Amino acid sequence: MKKRLLAAAAMLAAATALVACSPGGGGGASTASGSGASNCTNTISKKNLPVVTMWGWYPNMQLVVDNFNKQNNEVQVCWTNVGQGSDEYDKFQTAISAGTGAPDVIMIEMDRIPTFQIQNALVDIKKYGFDAVKADYSEGAWKDVSVGDAVYGVPVDGGPMAMIYRKDIFEKYDITPPKTWAEYEQAAQKMKDAGGPPFGDFAANVSALTMALQIQKGAAPFTYDPAQQGSIGVKLNDQASKEVLDYWGRLAKNGLVGTQDQFTPEYISGVINGKYATYISAAWAPGYLTGAGVGKGEDTGKFAVAPLPQWDPGNPVQVNWGGSAFSVTSQAKNPELAAKVAYGLYADEESLTHGWTNQVIFPLNLKAINDPEFVNLKVAFFDGQQANKEVYVPAANAYKGVTYSPFGQYYFDAMTKQVSALIEGSVTGAQAADRLQADVANYAKEQGFTVQ
């Protein structure tokens, strides 16, 4: 166990996070916990109440915290933003190693929860009011924040996946939104033959996306339950995983899709200038793209969204990319009170409405997902299309959840390496999957796991 904890710490120090939200305001770390706090970004008006400290980076966190404090007469929240993603994780890792300095509640991306859970840095909140809020979230949302039978976070935002496309390009080349990946390849070939742009992009730096598409085809990369005495299932070269890599490798080799790293100025410039006909992404993408300058000026009103193409139309599978939760840390002086905060933050109507109206989050709280205003929203980025009703809400409702591993960043980095080789043409998709399996399985064994 000690070897694994040290490995997790080293992994986090080198991690780079891909997040769906933009960073919020500044502020330093809270220095008090449980019965008072200093250095809060927000102002606490009910000073006679116990205080729970928390870190988070949602852009509208100030509003969310103020709403909670205003409505609550049992506890108050002292919020600070110590950085987004990896910046926050590095500080949390330092606090874990020191045994002090962590907040009571922390915002964490769901795929990072097992990494901190294995270090005993998070609290199972199932015994602190879970039953009262269980029905507020889907089964898939709860699975993403669980490790084994324990629950280590409250799901806030997610990333049900879909296919964003350029209406003008589809119309020019007489393309109908493909419903299957076979149709996607056919449409890509049709567009190339007509002298059109690449149909999409297969990037090495979006391993979470590649994993999601493999899961959609039936892969189960990891099986992990801490109750199983250090055992973990690693299955990265099954037939489904190989076929997905072979598929995208073939599209790249044939020039049907680009291979530009995503989340770069070059890629965004390409999206703005119509270099790609489609963008396979998640429900947070419209907000991200809008913030990056897409959908403005000459390309205003040119985007639409369709359901994610399926590998097997007779057995449709919805997948997710991204999402964050509020977790209670093991350094919380009053875990029950901290859990109350985790359950209550971003759960009131005003905060949720502000979040989805301003494209800060795609809410996972069913009170928001089922809100007629949210469902029927005419999304400006998609030229007034009711994207939630037609695409994102059905995808979110059908999502079943994923089992993440406690060394997710190593896996993502190893995937990037193999996809890069696939794009370069030095390996086939099947070979890339076999190499990835050997790499990650060996790493798991080095950390003391028994690999199944």
UniProtKB/TrEMBL annotation:
Database matches in Gene3D superfamilies: Periplasmic binding protein-like II (3.40.190.10)
The signal peptide here is 1-19
Q: Which Pfam families match?
A: SBP_bac_1
This protein's UniProt keywords: Signal
Which superkingdom? Bacteria
UniProt protein name: Extracellular solute-binding protein
